[in-house]
């Protein structure tokens, strides 16, 4: 008999949080009747500046089957959090999850760009992708390289050798979810191999927090620019207060003198 669920959650804190977030987002999407076009990522929306969709598409699921498959696989892959002795662990898991979310999304867009611009396949311009599959396939690949003896458990009864799991799952999802994005899953596998083989490396808490900060900044700015959400409270107004010091250059022959006028009260406040 396995461990109680409570103890498994404690052993996989990051995985448990991500599953909770994805499930809560799925519930909200169902309640608000949100569709693919509202949260999904496509080439067309990306060139319009909707970069925030790289994030929303990764954590959003429309189909309950899609959600269950991804979360079931992710729960099994949560064993990565317990493999600190192999150089993995919770910190590694969180750091490279950020990398997988961003780079797999960018790689998908890059593939679409080549297919559209080089091969004139306009069909890919409007394909909209959603789901955590890119990240799931990335972690399958990393675990297959780092610990090939592991098993991937799906739905609590289907067990696959992790060595072949990425490609077996690629076929499996194409059968049970015909609308599954082949290129999306493939991008996760490619980025997963790049991380596992050390082509992408050097992540630590500093770089992870820096990346997270840039993600948040680009997310908010692109969300505001696209007009998808009203963010007028972020407007930055120009300051024309005459009480602020002025700076000017005074010419004197071949030289220049910098003159700064003082504030009337001599005080500066930063709010």
UniProtKB/TrEMBL annotation:
Family (UniProt):
Belongs to the peptidase S54 family.
The answer to keyword Repeat applying to this record is no
One cellular component term from this protein's GO annotations in UniProt: membrane
Give the species: Arachis hypogaea (Peanut)
Signal sequence segment: none
Q: What is its main location?
A: membrane
Subcellular compartments? Membrane
Q: How does it sit in the membrane?
A: Multi-pass membrane protein
- Which PANTHER family does the UniProt record give? PEPTIDASE S54 RHOMBOID DOMAIN-CONTAINING PROTEIN-RELATED (PTHR43731:SF32), RHOMBOID PROTEASE (PTHR43731)
Q: Any transmembrane segments, and where?
A: 12-29, 50-73, 93-115, 127-145, 157-177, 182-200, 206-223
Query: Does this entry carry the keyword Transmembrane?
Result: yes
List, alphabetically, the InterPro entries matched.
Peptidase_S54_rhomboid_dom (IPR022764), Rhomboid-like_sf (IPR035952), Rhomboid_protease_S54 (IPR050925)
The name this protein carries in UniProt is Peptidase S54 rhomboid domain-containing protein
